[in-house]
């Protein structure tokens, strides 16, 4: 059945067409996002949800999203999505980090000009037939200092354009290196320094716990008298009440805001104040940007739902379509290795070490790690997947480490997973054969070569005669067909293991009969998700 995607905000038609062309069943309901009850009632039907900013993906919506695999934001900020709840539920969250950055940077520059020359008020006055030439005295940008808070993609473009306008640019961004700042031709400064020196301040940080209220009442008090403040990033970054007071007192000469603490904004402390320019969250509103983000969202979601390729996800390592093709069998193997250990382990897991050898060590290990951890966690929590597994492991305090090494044995590459619990260490290794099928190649240090099936039986025993016959006879007596039988032993008469790939589940009684022979140290039925 084709995957189903819901578009619950106003997205360019281009997205709808791409979904259709890719064979995805798409439901375009651009106003649904505004009605959280209706959205909660229908979300369970969909594999994917494409949104802009009106849809709020809360934990309540996610609780009903029983089939959801991916949420994609046609835009940059994902503060309207509860990403923790999505990760715990195993839902990938994607955005389109580049599609609207130029458009938004241009809006910030336009807002800077607008507030420097009071263009909106001058325009309204002229439309009204007044000719108030002396009322609208402005300031030049040339030679002025622009303080940029957040010098990432959008802030970086704003810096570039401002330098073209012959402004001096000072940037505050703890994650901006001196070297990058130098390349950008900007001065990297501390926030207090920026506040004290800037004639214009523009914000380009995401809304997070650290950036909320970054321009607080106290921060605004540290700004230069006559400063003009531009916010085209997110409402809530600036204390709007305190800014309104600073505008009224004349300390701040002007403000240009595209985003507000409450949106849609119908009332706001800044509304109606002189030299405050406001736009209704238009930063990304150009034909070009909307086309870009819509196309990207549709392509990214289709790729993920149809091929497993992951692009621009915030809670999952990226996997290109090419990688997904090459890595597919290795991801399956990683999941099987995890599932083997998960099913064998009854105690709490303290640490997981994953060794990558040979060709596999050069692959996208983040994705493989997620698959191993998900395989292990599934035993205790069947809903865990590659997205939620690292979150669940972190919550349980499980240490995850990886080791890489060049080709060390007969296989071109293999993966070995070792799990440490309070009581013991347990390990299993596997590889992918040229037929693209995963094989287990070592358990407890004992070499084997076992194809993985949906139903398997694992036994351990002393290496004595009669084991094969007992297994064959007992399973035969219970009408269980053996598809593949693999044996291994540490040394002659030493420890031995058997892995049987069987055609269906094993009846309880068969397990009991095997136990009752007294020949086996362990008899364990295993299940694997095979395609
Ligand atoms: N108005 C609009 O329509 C519109 C459009 C697009 C994006 N946005 C907003 O703009 C924001 C920035 O977008 P971007 O593409 O430049 O993102 P980005 O991730 O490329 O850049 C954000 C920058 O902020 C910096 N940063 C993070 N925490 C910081 C802190 N505490 N102090 C200072 N700097 C900090 C980061 O290091 C990064 O360089 C988005 O998160 C979104 O909320 C608004
Ligand atoms: O969708 C929009 O119009 C706004 C997008 C913008 O806020 C973003 O974060 O990309």
Helices and strands, with pairings:
Blueprint: E1 4-7, H1 13-21, E2 25-28, H2 36-42, E3 48-51, H3 59-64, E4 70-73, H4 83-89, E5 92-94, H5 101-117, H6 119-127, E6 145-149, H7 153-164, E7 168-172, H8 178-184, E8 187-188, H9 191-197, E9 200-203, H10 217-221, E10 227-231, H11 240-249, E11 252-257, E12 276-278, H12 287-307, H13 321-344, E13 349-358, H14 365-377, H15 389-395, E14 399-405, E15 413-421, E16 425-432, E17 438-443, E18 446-451, E19 455-462, H16 467-477, E20 482-489, E21 495-502, H17 508-516, E22 520-527
Parallel strand pairs: 1-2, 1-3, 3-4, 4-5, 6-7, 6-9, 7-8, 9-10, 10-11, 11-12, 13-14
Antiparallel strand pairs: 13-15, 15-16, 16-17, 17-18, 19-21, 19-22, 20-21
The chain binds nicotinamide-adenine-dinucleotide and (2R)-2-hydroxypentanedioic acid.
Protein name: D-3-phosphoglycerate dehydrogenase
Keywords: Amino-acid biosynthesis, NAD, Oxidoreductase, Serine biosynthesis
Enzyme class: oxidoreductase
